[in-house]
Amino acid sequence: MTDQNTSSSEFAMGWKVLLAGVLGVACGASPLPFNVIGFTVEPLIEEFGWTRTQILFPITIFGIIASLLAPFFGSLADKYGVRKVALYSLLAFGLSFGAISFTPTAQVTSTLYIYYALWVLVGLIGIGSTPVSWSRAINLWFYKNRGLALGILLLGTSLAAIAVPKLAVWGIENYGWRAMFAIVAALPIFVALPIGYFLFREPRPEERPKAILSDSGNLTGVTLGTALKDYRFWLIWLSIAMIATAFGGAFINLPTMLGDRGLDAQTAASVMGVLGIGILSGRIITGALLDRFWQGFVAFPLLCLPAIFCYLLLGDSITFAMAALAAFLLGFAAGAESDLIAYLTGRYFGMANYGKIYGMLYMPFGFFSALSPIIYASVRDNTGSYDPILSVAIFGFIIGGGLLLFLGRYPDNFPETDPSPTSKLATEQS
Question: At residue 418, does pLDDT exceed 60?
Answer without folding.
Answer: no
